[in-house]
Amino acid sequence: MPGLLLANVAVLLTFDGEDRELQNVDVRVADGRISEIGDLEPQATETVIDCSRLLVMPGLVNAHQHLYQVGLRCIPDLERILLQEWLKGLGQLCMQWWRDGHFTPETIATMARAGMVESLLCGVTTVADQHYYYPGGVTEPYLEAIISEAQAVGIRLNAGRGTMTYPRSEGGEGPDDACQSVDEVLRHSLELIDAYHDPDPLGKIRIDLAPCGPHVDRLEVFSSFAEIAAENPGVGLHTHLYEGVDTQFCRRRYGRSPWQVIGEAGWHNDRVWLAHMVDCPRGEIPSYAAAGVGLVHLVAPDLRMGFRPAPVRAWLNGGCTVGFGTTGSASNDGCNQMGDLRLAALTHRQHSPQPENWLSARELLAMSTRGSARCLSRPALGTITPGAGADLAAWDITTVDRVGVHDPVVGLVLTGLSDRADLVIAAGEVVVQDGRCVSVDEDEVAAAARATLPPAP
Ligand SMILES: [Zn+2]
Predict the structure, then answer these.
(1) Ligand 1: centre distance to CA 211 (Å)
(2) Domains contained in the chain, number
(3) How far is the CA of 132 from the centre of ligand 1 (A)?
(4) pLDDT digits (tens, 9 = 90+) for 152-181
C-alpha cells in the first residue's frame, strides 16, 4: 500500500490522550496506520495531499446502524407514529417485501452499499451494523452480503448478528413471522465468526453478537452470546436497551429493570455497548460506568419517535463511555452522522436551563470518534496518534458558508451548507476525494439502489 503525506493540515484534531489540536502540521500514513505527525519531508514513494484548507480529524465511528433500512426512508404511514406502532408497521412492510420476493440478500446488499457510501461522504469510516430481520425465521445471507459490500466500498464494518427469538405467541414481543430459534441464531453466529471475524484491533471486518432487545429476545440468547464472546477475542455484544418499549416488559416478565435483566445474562462488562438508553434510570448510571459498558447516543431517531433526548450529560458526568450513531434509515431517514451532531448540539439546550450542561462541539466530536471506538472495543480507532488506524476525515474550512467562523472546531459542527467531507481515508486508502466517493462510483451506487428498490407501499 503506497504511503500518504497529508501536508500542511490547517487544523488537526487528534482526540489523543491530551486532545491536542495542532495547526499547520503534516501527517504521514503508512501500512494502514498513522506513522508520524510533525514537520515532515515528503518521501519519494508517497502521495502528497495538500491539506492547507482542511480540518482533519479521526474518521467518525457510527456505533449503531441498520443498513438494510436505507430502502425504508420516509414511509408516509410511518412519518408521525409512536414507536410501538412504528415497529409493527416496519415489520409488516419487511414481510410484504419478503412475500413479494424483494427482501433478498441482493436487495439488502444494494441498500447497504448506498448507506455505506452515504456514510463515507459524511466522514464515517467505521460502521457498526445490526441486522436483525430474518423474515419467515429463515437465515438468509443478509449479513454476509453486507460484509461483502463493506469490503468493496472500503469502510470498516462491525457486523452485528442481530436476532429476534421471543415471539408474541410464546410471551415475548417479537413478531411471530420473523423470530428464529435460539439454536439457529447460535449456529449462524458461530459460522459468521469462523468465516469473517478478524480479532486484530484494526481488523476491517469484525463480528458482534447483537440481540434486538430483551423484550423480543430470550435471555438464553443473551447468556449464550456472552459465553461465545468470552471465548472469541474482539467479538462484541450489542443490543437496544431502554428504548421506551422494553422497560415495562422487563418489569412485568422478570420483575427487574432491563439493565438488571441483561446483567443476569452476563452483560455487565466492557464487551457490551447499548443503543438508545432514553429512559434509563439516573440511579443506574454509576453501575453503567462501573461495568464499563458503552452507551450510544442516537439523537435523530430518539427525537423522531418523540422521546426526550437521552441524559447524555449525566452519562458523561458519571464517567460512562459514550458513543454516537445514527441507527437505521427507517427512523432517521439518513446516515448523516455529522448532521446529527448539529442536531444534538442544539437539541440538548432545550432540556437544561444551565448552559454548562449543554453538549459542546468538541464533546460531540469526541463521542463520535474516540467514544464510539471505545464502545466497539477498538481503541486504535477514533484517534490520530502514531500507531492508530489511518482513518481520517477532513472538511474544507475556507468555504463561503464558513466565512466568519472564529473557532473552526465549533464551526465544523454548527455551520456548513453540506455535511460532505472533502477528504476521507479509511484503513489507509483514500475513499473520498474532493467531496466525491472514489472507492466506488456513487452515482452508479445510487442508480442501482433506485433500480432495486421495491415498489412503494
Ligand atoms: Zn436500532
Answers:
(1) 11
(2) 2
(3) 9
(4) 999 999 999 999 999 999 999 999 999 999
How many angstroms does the Cα of residue 328 sit away from the middle of ligand 1?
Answer: 6
Q: How far is the CA of 141 from the centre of ligand 1 (A)?
A: 20
Query: Is residue 371 over pLDDT 70?
Result: yes
Residue 2 pLDDT: 79
247 inside domain: yes
Could you tell me the distance, in angstroms and rounded to a whole number, from the CA of residue 210 to the centre of ligand 1?
10
**CA angle in degrees (0–180, nearest 5) for 352-325-414:** 55
Q: Is residue 204 part of a domain?
A: yes
Per-residue confidence band for 1, with pLDDT thresholds at 50, 70 and 90: confident
Phi and psi at 133, nearest 5°, equal: -100, 115
CATH number of the CATH domain containing 413: 2.30.40.10
Q: How far is the CA of 65 from the centre of ligand 1 (A)?
A: 6
pTM of full prediction above 0.70: yes
Span 177-217, pLDDT tens digits: 999 999 999 999 999 999 999 999 899 999 999 999 999 99
48's CB contacts (< 8 A; 6+ apart) are 4, 5, 7, 42
CA distance 87 to 331: 10
Structure confidence at residue 454 (pLDDT)? 82
Interval between CA 25 and ligand 1 midpoint (Å): 39
3-class DSSP assignment, residue 175: coil
